[in-house]
Amino acid sequence: MNFSAVTKQTNRGFLLLAIVFIVLSFVQCTPKHQVASSSQAGTKADHPDKGLKDYYKNYFPIGVAVSMASLHGPDSALIVKEFNSVTPENDMKMGPIHPSEDIYNWKNADKIVDFAVSHHIKIRGHNLCWHNQEAAWMFKGADGKPVTKELLLRRLKDHIFAVAGRYKGKIYAWDVVNEAVDDSDDTTQVYRKSNWYNICNGPDFIEAAFRYAHEADPQAKLYYNDYNSEHPVKREKIYKLLKKLIEDHVPIDGVGMQAHWKLYEPSPDELRKALDEVTSLGLKVQFTELDITIRLPQPKPAPGSTPPTPDPGYTPELEAKQIAQYKMAFDIFRQYKKFITSVTFWNVSDKYSWLDQRGGGLTGGVAAGENTPRTVRKAYPLLFNENLQRKNAYWSVVNF
Ligand code: XIL
């Protein structure tokens, strides 16, 4: 071996050693970085390649609500890494997808379905019948007057056949009817007085929607979806509705509990009661729109007044409470794993949450069903921060 060959080999040796050293320090550093950003540092942090879906692979799919914007760039990479179920945030709702009798906007919904299919991600359909983001044309005839019950149900059937039919075999669960239960404390008032209810002169549209959906896609699991499903009064109303559907042999598989929660609501006891009640009916449960706002309920500000102090934002105290609330929720979810068939977050990261637009005045980030002025006050409700990094709350959910 001549001198230059020896030098070459020595150089190669050094190069190899250097690579091994770099790789080793990278492997050691990666978890440390994650742990460093986490007061909940624990054993699970030593799997840098794992996402939520992997930590929960023996429990249930973990989903996220998606829009067109989240199918590109960093959001999409995060979705693929962390989640194995998606729900279109708006693009399958009646109004957006079926704005007039002969027009269907398939473009966005198709893109979400293609994205999910190409990444082997499951798809929840959301939703087939709702009083919000509705297709307003459905309620009116050519004369501008309300349609008859018969015509409304025929339009509902056509709609469900078109939408559930198009994605047949690709959607594992549909929110068939969304938010049809009344919010008031009046226990005798079970159903929301929506256009659906008023024109049908009762709740028949609910049962009809489930039957149409089952006919259109017999394999899809069918869910009734609502918020505040852990509040004692609303819980009982939802229970009455579900019991009646089951007694009438309506094809329903489960309940979607939206889970737009707060730092102190629901309590563990309320959450367990809600789960015990619906599962006693033989139904499955999906948590369909999970987020936990850091905003606490406050009195409404006087009209025209400005918030008194600069917004302190995501303080360590609020963060600690959010961590505890997330941990409590997932501890209970895991205990009920045989009934829970998915848990879906509503939006990807704190960079954008639908709650930010709802949280005006002093309250900020209020849960669904409440009504406050629309000033941006961020709600910081998710497991990833504004830079798409895992928050401490993330580790409280995966370290079990
Ligand atoms: C919200 C979307 O996130 C917003 O982008 C849209 O402006 C309004 O609807 N309950 C539901 C969801 O069932 O469809 C809602 O989604 C949030 C409350």
Question: Can you walk through the features of this model?
Answer:
The structure is a single chain. The chain is about 40% helix and about 15% strand. It is built from twelve helices and nine strands. About 40% of the residues are buried. By secondary structure, the protein is an alpha/beta fold. Helix 11 (about 315-335) packs parallel to helix 12. The protein has an eight-stranded parallel β-barrel, surrounded by five helices. It binds (3S,4R)-3-hydroxy-2-oxopiperidin-4-yl beta-D-xylopyranoside (XIL). (3S,4R)-3-hydroxy-2-oxopiperidin-4-yl beta-D-xylopyranoside binds near residues 89, 178, 289 and 368.
Record the SSE blueprint.
Blueprint: H1 3-36, H2 52-55, E1 62-66, H3 73-82, E2 85-88, H4 94-97, H5 107-118, E3 122-129, H6 149-166, E4 171-178, H7 195-200, H8 204-216, E5 221-226, H9 232-247, E6 254-257, E7 260-261, H10 268-280, E8 284-292, H11 316-335, E9 340-345, H12 392-398
Parallel strand pairs: 1-2, 1-9, 2-3, 3-4, 4-5, 5-6, 6-8, 7-8, 8-9
Helix pairs in contact: 6-8, 9-10, 11-12
Bound molecules: (3S,4R)-3-hydroxy-2-oxopiperidin-4-yl beta-D-xylopyranoside.
(3S,4R)-3-hydroxy-2-oxopiperidin-4-yl beta-D-xylopyranoside (XIL) is lined by residues 89-90, 178, 258, 289, 354, 368.
